[in-house]
Amino acid sequence: MAREQSSGAGSATRPASAAGLGAQQAPRPTRPQQSGSGRGGPPPTISGGSRDTRLQMDPVEKARRQMGYRNNWHRKEVDHANQVKWPEPLGPNPRVAIIGGGMSGLMCARELARLGIRSTVFDTGKHGVGGRMGTRASGESSLRSGTGTTAASTKAAAAQLGGLVFDHAAQFFTVTDPSFQSVVDDWLATGLVRVWEGPVGTLRAGAGAFARLPPSPPRYVAVGGMRRLAEALGEQLEAGGGSSLVEFRRPCWVGKMQAEEGRGWALSGEGRSQGVYDAVVVAHNGKCANRLVGPTGAPKVAEQLMRLKLNAVWCLMVAFDGPLPVNFEGAFIQGSSILSWAANNTAKLELKHTPAGTQCWTLFSTNAYGQANKVPQENIPPEVADKVAAEMVAALKQAAAGPEGSPAAAAVAAKWPKTVFTRVQLWGAALPLNTPGTPCILDPDSRVGVCGDWLSGGSLQAAAVSGITLARQIAGLRGKTQDQLAPFRLGLEAQFKPLRVTDIGEFPH
Ligand SMILES: Cc1cc2nc3c(=O)[nH]c(=O)nc-3n(C[C@H](O)[C@H](O)[C@H](O)COP(=O)(O)OP(=O)(O)OC[C@H]3O[C@@H](n4cnc5c(N)ncnc54)[C@H](O)[C@@H]3O)c2cc1C
């Protein structure tokens, strides 16, 4: 299948107006044809109907429009007659577009490369790839990617960062899957991750009662912060320059995909063509994903994306001018309507560069608090940020103290340090509340697949296994004729079940 040349690497800035993407066009109703355009064999079979193009102006949509994003497909429009079927088998050297550079997209690219398949990873991240493997540093020292450095030690990463450091999404991960364990063993051997041995457990709010969890399964943390791990994975994939099988385009928001007869999937983003691909992997979740896939010709994939429900979690990055009077480094908070998790980054990441005595903590809200205080996440009003920060710190203080009026509570209050830095982030589409319980989704007719944490749970492991599995399925499609595709059809009919272990994901801890 022929492809057009790509239009440059990922340094594109977002256009002030994305008018070029404004009119999301549906694949034209096309009768099956017998011969191709000459560039890439026969055209796909596409059928389709008319659709409503009105915009739904919910807060997220509004924020995206303010940022110059356009996408006018909305939920009720899945049209089952609108199914793309590529008539020719997938060739021996396909090119795959991976939309999303979080753990699932990175692991999908890694596995595709291992199997000799070329891919292009698109990601919106301004500071780097990684998605919800996020780390932030205060002031001007936000982590950057693409610098070609790999954290050899915490000290090196810290020297590069300076200031205060916070993992602001994934905190640690556990492993039960053998294929992921072998990847993690490599990361351990090369110093990208290590085992977090500090006290992690549960804290009963108001009782001040911390119960330490057993050390097994090991809790892995990324040396220097989660973003460093994502960056290192990206650097490994890009190593080899021109001979690398993985190309990154970042920041690049893919806003449209369209089946083109005789060519493949044409992607657009940042106001221009982003190339044509033989298969597309959607490696992100949420509204954005179902809007991208919805009008394209993979209706069953779109329907599964539409069934996903996500929680909302506030993250507070907070620094104190002294140590908190607590006996844990990480705690799942129980019995609080506001807080679900608290972690001491200074201890967890072994930060040595923070001003003497300063401690950097990451606090996560409950889903209930996230929903009750939801605002457009790209545009948080300052008064909401202040309120959320104050309430979350107060909730931690209250959770750590013993029963009200007790000597223990008075001691905690007396020793409580001063807050010297706060920054909030709302994860508006944080973690899945339901799951189809399948490692990935693949529609082999249209060659559109989905990977991500939500397909089998909400964790880094679920995301990694999903990406690896989807890559293997796509590789298996090579050379298969239409009557041989059945074993590759995955997750399209899987029923969703509720998922709720903790507000920050489903993983053994
Ligand atoms: C608050 C919080 C705490 C968590 N804590 C833990 C934990 O302690 N342990 C654990 O195991 N897991 C935890 N998780 C879950 C873990 O972070 C996720 O399971 C995992 O990172 C998901 O990876 P992913 O690849 O599926 O998606 P993501 O990481 O979300 O990656 C998707 C990527 O796609 C990009 N993207 C989206 N749309 C487009 C587009 N149109 N074009 C281009 N790029 C696009 C996004 O920018 C993003 O980078 C936590 C999550 C949250 C939110």
UniProtKB/TrEMBL annotation:
<dbReference type="Pfam" id="PF01593">
    <property type="entry name" value="Amino_oxidase"/>
</dbReference>
<feature type="compositionally biased region" description="Low complexity">
    <location>
        <begin position="23"/>
        <end position="36"/>
    </location>
</feature>
<feature type="region of interest" description="Disordered">
    <location>
        <begin position="1"/>
        <end position="56"/>
    </location>
</feature>
<protein>
    <recommendedName>
        <fullName>Amine oxidase domain-containing protein</fullName>
    </recommendedName>
</protein>
<dbReference type="InterPro" id="IPR036188">
    <property type="entry name" value="FAD/NAD-bd_sf"/>
</dbReference>
<dbReference type="InterPro" id="IPR002937">
    <property type="entry name" value="Amino_oxidase"/>
</dbReference>
<dbReference type="Pfam" id="PF13450">
    <property type="entry name" value="NAD_binding_8"/>
</dbReference>
<feature type="region of interest" description="Disordered">
    <location>
        <begin position="128"/>
        <end position="148"/>
    </location>
</feature>
<feature type="domain" description="Amine oxidase">
    <location>
        <begin position="221"/>
        <end position="474"/>
    </location>
</feature>
<dbReference type="GO" id="GO:0016491">
    <property type="term" value="F:oxidoreductase activity"/>
</dbReference>
<feature type="compositionally biased region" description="Polar residues">
    <location>
        <begin position="1"/>
        <end position="10"/>
    </location>
</feature>
